[in-house]
Specification:
The chain is an alpha/beta fold and about 525 residues long. The strands form 3 sheets. Strands 4-5-3-6-7-8 form a 6-stranded mixed beta sheet, with helices on both faces. Helix 3 links the parallel strand 6 and strand 7. The termini are far apart.
């Protein structure tokens, strides 16, 4: 006899049984896996003969075989998608099969595999006792299992395994949708949101599809009603963000999108040439489109998950647009107020824009997250809002202020704080803090409170540096712009005095980006005045 195989009928290769050493064989992902665990070779042969040519749901079966409980353990540890275990009770020990049941359910935590006990010695493991004590799915005496009954048993058990997997996939899918939606809704900005959509939808569906997310904005001045713009993409779409989606979507897909958009408000999901398009149209006519490129349709569960996810996207997109509209209004009001102060004090037109951009840049480098840094940027133009209460004679005096006049000028920090402090809006709360503290100094010699070190808020510390830097490098009626090297020397001199040392280090580390800000927002003189 060959050392590697036990041979029952040497003219039929299908009846060979590996004399297993516990190594898991190569498995077929497109077949139902049945593990036969029995120390009798004839049982293996008879089982395979009875189920030869068997198919369920269009898939064949693949047999894995072990002749002991110990060998079966090794296979089960390596193969996690076994559908059925046909298990003998008495093998290397009287309870080897029952011990294997305990191992599968309790040690491996595998509740999906269906376990059918087959015993030739029912007295060793009485049916009623085994069913009650062990998590098995069926109990059969070997003498009762004719070929027909075995066929029926395996068919019914595979049906059960399939249905349990569908239920479990649905449960996991629902969890993924909830988790994905929660992550997605954290995003506050449209570009981040769109990329979040792609990240999360890729976790919902199987396969390496290219994914694109586009928004058609009928209300934008630069778009007509038929314009679509890619705002995020993966795969072949990744390099085309910001470009017209019409140029990158296949004609049949683009035509189907337009056809559904013209139907008006609603939620749409449809297939075009093996690719899925999820689409929602809001009250304004704006359409949000999720386009997944694939070969053939994914599993039904994936389609359902996509549809659920698209509904969440609709709510999120609409809310995000409403939020952005409010932010745009808030931003415009802030800049209008800031420009009113600038015009009255005859300062340069881009002063507040430069201070805002510089503040955000330094804020991120000093540890702010994107959301807080953006709020800081939007609030920053209000740092001098208190100057609206300073008399023109002092505010616009071309010469040096007297001590009494400077005392009046210093009150603008308190005035700004008083104007803003009662708001419960986050942006205006930040604005109140920076208006109040942007003339405080790291060593405690500033005003109006004489705060020192980290008692000054981070936004106050940063605005102090941004405001002073801009005043030095810009032209004012009482001074010409300082040369850059002179400004840098002063900042180094004031390190640890006026300014936080770490902030000065950060400033010089980010100098190339700062110079870029000043290139983009060059001065448009509005007049002359005091800072």
């Amino acid at each position: 006899m060959d050392d590697d195989f036990l041979v029952i009928e040497d003219d039929d290769e299908d009846l060979l049984i590996e004399d297993d050493d516990g190594a898991a064989p190569d498995t077929d992902q497109s077949a139902w896996k049945i593990l036969i665990v029995d120390d009798e070779p004839d049982v293996h042969v008879a089982t395979k003969l009875a189920l030869r040519g068997f198919q369920f749901d269009g898939m064949p079966i693949q047999f894995l075989e072990a002749t002991s409980g110990a060998a079966a353990r090794k296979i089960l540890e390596e193969v996690d998608d076994i559908a059925i275990v046909l298990l003998d009770v008495v093998m290397e020990s009287d309870d080897a099969g029952l011990n294997l049941v305990d191992f599968i359910r309790n040690e491996l935590g595998n509740t999906m595999v269906r376990i059918v006990l087959r015993t030739g010695q029912p007295g060793q493991a009485p049916e009623r006792d085994v069913i009650v004590r062990y998590d098995i799915n069926d109990y059969k005496e070997k003498t009762d299992l004719s070929a027909t009954k075995l066929f029926t048993l395996v068919y019914a058990t595979l049906r059960s395994y399939r249905d349990i997997n569908i239920i479990e996939a649905s449960r996991r899918g629902l969890v993924r949708v909830i988790d994905s939606s929660a992550e997605m809704f954290k995003e506050q900005f449209l570009d981040n949101f769109a990329n979040g959509v792609l990240k999360q939808v890729s976790s919902l569906v199987a396969g390496g599809r290219d994914v694109a997310f586009s928004l058609e904005d009928a209300a934008a001045a630069t778009h007509d009603r038929k314009e679509m713009t890619l705002v995020a993409g993966t795969g072949r779409f990744a390099g085309n963000v910001g470009k017209s989606a019409w140029e990158h979507f296949p004609p049949r897909v683009a035509a189907a999108i337009e056809e559904h958009r013209e139907r008006g408000r609603g939620e749409y999901g449809f297939w075009v040439d093996g690719s899925y398009v999820g689409m929602v149209v809001g009250n304004s006519g704006r359409a949000s489109i999720l386009y997944l490129v694939g070969e053939g349709r994914p599993a039904m569960i994936d389609t359902h998950l996509i549809q659920i996810f698209v509904r969440n996207v609709l709510i999120a997109v609409e809310n995000l647009y409403l939020r952005n509209a409010l932010l745009d209004t808030q931003r415009e009001v802030v800049y209008r107020l800031a420009q009113a102060v600038e015009t009255r004090s005859k300062e340069t037109g881009n002063h507040v824009k430069r201070v805002a951009e510089l503040s955000k840049l330094l804020g991120i480098e000093m540890g702010m997250n994107e959301h807080d840094a953006e709020t800081f940027r939007l609030a920053s133009p209000l740092h001098d809002i208190g100057k609206i209460g300073i008399p023109d004679a002092i505010l616009n005096k071309p010469g040096k202020l007297t001590a009494e006049e400077f005392d009046v000028m210093r009150t603008h920090a308190q005035l700004g704080y008083d104007i803003l402090k009662h708001s419960d809006r986050a942006l205006l709360q930040v604005a109140a803090s920076l208006a109040y503290e942007h003339h405080e100094k790291w060593d405690g010699s500033g005003y109006p409170q004489g705060l020192k070190g980290t008692d000054i808020s981070l936004v106050g510390r940063i605005t102090a540096l941004a405001d002073v830097y801009d005043a030095l490098v810009s032209e004012r009626c009482y001074k010409k712009p300082w040369p850059e090297d002179k400004v840098h020397a002063l900042l180094q001199e004031e390190k640890g005095k006026h300014f936080q040392p770490e902030l000065i280090d950060t400033f010089f580390r980010k100098l190339p980006e700062i110079r870029d800000i000043y290139t983009r927002y060059q001065d448009t003189p509005l007049g002359t005045g005091n800072d």
